[in-house]
Amino acid sequence: MRILKFGGTSVGSAQRMKDVAKLISTGEKNIVVLSAMSGTTNTLIEISDYLYKKNPDGAGEIINTLEKKYFSVIDELYSTEEYKEKAIEYVKTHFNYIRSLTKELFTLFEEKAVLAQGELISTGLVNYYLNETGVKSVLLPALDYMRVDKNAEPDVIYIKEKLAALLLEFPDADLYITQGFICRNAYGEIDNLQRGGSDYTASLIGAAVNAEEIQIWTDIDGMHNNDPRFVEGTRPVRNLHFEEVAELAYFGAKILHPTCVLPAKLNNIPVRLLNTMEPEAPGTLISNELDRGKIKAIAAKDNITAIKIKSGRMLLAFGFLRKIFEIFESYQTPIDMVTTSEVGVSLTIDNTKNLSDIVDDLKKYGTVTVDKDMVIVCIVGDMDWVNVGFETKIMEAMKEIPVRMISYGGSNYNISLLINASDKQRTLQALSNHLF
Question: Average pLDDT in the 279-301 region?
Answer without folding.
Answer: 89
